[in-house]
Design goal:
single chain, alpha/beta, five-stranded parallel sheet, three-stranded antiparallel sheet, 10 strands, about 50% helix, globular
Length: about 250
């Protein structure tokens, strides 16, 4: 029953105008940062490691801006359910789409690798730019709760994207390659470890698809919000970025 209540609340909150949602986000920021102090020690340690050249005051400023962004990100999650195609295209901007379109016209599938940053629910609106013959796959981890899993799928497929469970992704890609279908598959470039060995899904797919007709390329993702805040997604690892650059160069020579 609780899951259905959450489902209904998310559906209702999606009707609120952005100005109201961002006011809610401002309140959430103060609760997270000053009251709950959600993971502030971890954030401070990470910023100290990432920006040792910056002063404590500068890192505190970055820290506060991060929590404001986190709060905005949370309330923006609800909105796509009721956003029109015109509104989402105004607020979620994809530049240089013609670069990928050139590969679609050649009948070549594309693997897009993105940083783990930004609003993925909004990014799925890229499907609005595609010809219906080109499938747009996004990777996701199914939730154990079937009601909430259905909610996530409805939001992420709102504009035509096709979320696929992470355990099925390789099977779906190989199936489409065998059938010579054109697709874009977008993955988060996440780093982790398997039994202590550094592991990246993006690197894995780049290696598996060597010698195929597939283009593997980094993607950048920019958001335009109500306060004209532009967020850019970049690859988080220089080594991984260079690796993908080499792989992309090799594919483009075939």
């Amino acid at each position: 029953m609780f899951s259905y209540i959450i489902y209904g609340l998310v559906w209702l909150v999606g009707f609120l105008p952005f100005r109201v949602l961002y006011l809610v986000a401002d309140g959430m920021y103060y609760v997270l940062y000053y009251v709950v102090r959600y993971r502030r020690k971890v954030v401070a340690e990470n910023l100290a490691r990432s920006f040792p050249e910056k002063s404590l005051r500068e890192r505190k400023d970055i820290e506060r801006r991060f929590y404001r962004h986190l709060s905005d990100f949370f309330v923006e999650f609800f909105k796509p359910w009721h956003m029109s195609a015109k509104e989402i295209r105004k607020r979620c901007v994809f530049k240089h789409a013609e670069v990928l379109q050139r590969y679609y016209d050649q009948g070549r599938p594309v693997i897009g690798v993105m940083g783990h940053y930004g609003n993925w629910e909004w990014m799925t609106s890229y499907a609005l730019l595609l010809n219906p013959a080109v499938s747009f796959y996004t990777l996701y981890k199914p939730l154990h709760n079937r009601v909430l899993d259905k909610m996530m799928l409805r939001i992420r497929s709102r504009f035509g994207a096709k979320p696929i469970p992470r355990n099925d992704v390789l099977r779906v890609i190989l199936r489409d390659l065998q059938a010579k279908r054109v697709f874009l598959a977008a993955f988060i470039f996440s780093n982790g470890a398997v039994r202590g060995v550094p592991f990246s899904l993006g690197i894995l797919f780049a290696a598996l698809l060597c010698g195929t007709n597939v283009i593997v390329t980094p993607l950048l993702f920019a958001l335009s919000s109500i306060v004209s805040l532009n967020l850019t997604v970049s690859l988080t690892s220089l080594f991984s970025g260079l690796f993908l650059g080499v792989i992309t160069f090799l594919y483009r020579r075939t």
